[in-house]
Hints:
7-stranded parallel sheet, 3-stranded mixed sheet, about 40% helix, about 15% strand
Amino acid sequence: MLALTADKPELKVVFDQTGTPTYAYDLAAAIFDIMENRKFEGRTGVYHYSNEGVCSWYDFTRMIAEIAGHTACDIQPCHSSEFPSKVVRPSYSVLDKTLFKLNRTEFITMNFKRNIIVTGGAGFIGSHVVRLFVRKYPDYRIINVDKLTYAGNLANLADIEACPNYLFVKADIVDFDRMLALMQEYSVDGVIHLAAESHVDRSIKDPFTFARTNVMGTLSLLQAAKVHWESSPAKYEDKLFYHISTDEVYGALELTRPEGDADGRGPYGEEFFVETTKYNPHSPYSASKASSDHFVRAFHDTYGMPTIVTNCSNNYGPYQFPEKLIPLFINNIRHRRPLPVYGRGENVRDWLYVEDHARAIDTIFHRGKVAETYNIGGFNEWKNIDIVKVLIRTVDRLLGNPEGASLDLITYVTDRAGHDMRYAIDSRKLQRELGWEPSLQFEEGIEKTVRWYLDNQPWLDNITSGAYENYYNDMYANR
């Protein structure tokens, strides 16, 4: 790369192959350490080693050129499909170095004030929760358990992966034996359960996967926690199973004020979801989440397990997988692709910036009352079509496009089956009892969000794989 960036005026480098470049001297030193200090004496198995950090070949080349001062070379990102090969190279080749960088026995026996499993910690909301807890509570051991399905991405946590109080474990929460073993091995006293299949369209096409992960996965975790905690001398003392759910379990609210207030903004009805609203799920996704909520409460009522359930409104912000409305449309506007809007775009959702949700989870985990339910929202209702227009205005402005240049991309498509008309969360209980409230207004949050996606296009490109493109076409191309 040094020679190429020195000699060539332009260079194309793939952005969709990601790994961890490793300094050869560091690898040699690691091998010497194993042989000389007998760090692994009496132990067998396969151990991974590499330097820290994650980057694509494109990122790596740009850094080499920058350090070398080869600024004349125009380095352009490209897709690996532009360089056909008989051998398929992995798109994400990053090693889990936990067993090497820290002697496993040493890590297990280290004294931490709390030992907390966060499920789904490589996902959108989960990664923000993991980052917050790892940084804010260095005396807590945070164990990130994630299966790494399509929406899980360890690159979301590259900035904290080397922290001594953080551990990633690739595992399926449905695997009861593995969950129990983890809880016993690390003396887990808290579970923050975020892992879930969460996209409504996917649930309509494949409800079995949603039932497996969202219902049986939750039951597996509950039973593992029950067995582990009931076998300890302290039983359930100072333990907590915190289950994160959705406002969609409540069903839909009527759109009794379709014009909104004088400025055309919400609220768009008189009623709101409160903690005592009866469940009335309308999609396989919300039905699976409702079932998991009931299991959590049943484990409290039947066994005395300390549990808390929270129901949150729609989240937005950095690191969200681009099947969801806001990152999908930011990416589509940038690339001049259609913006598929269900029906006439009149459906209403309540929006919350993801870092505010993570702060709420932190507050509730530490100060929430056992067996309570808390709604988390921002009294921030928007019609889908209005969200789309805000995104168009913001992206066009930041890209230097003329105002309204991307309005022609709006494409109305056949409405989703069972599409709920309005969600609106009443979170006053959380504000009143625990003092939490959102820190950002939507306009400020959406500005930050759009800027993040525009500034991190390689991250977005890395996860919009061929499989995702096929899914996108399947869901929207013929509607």
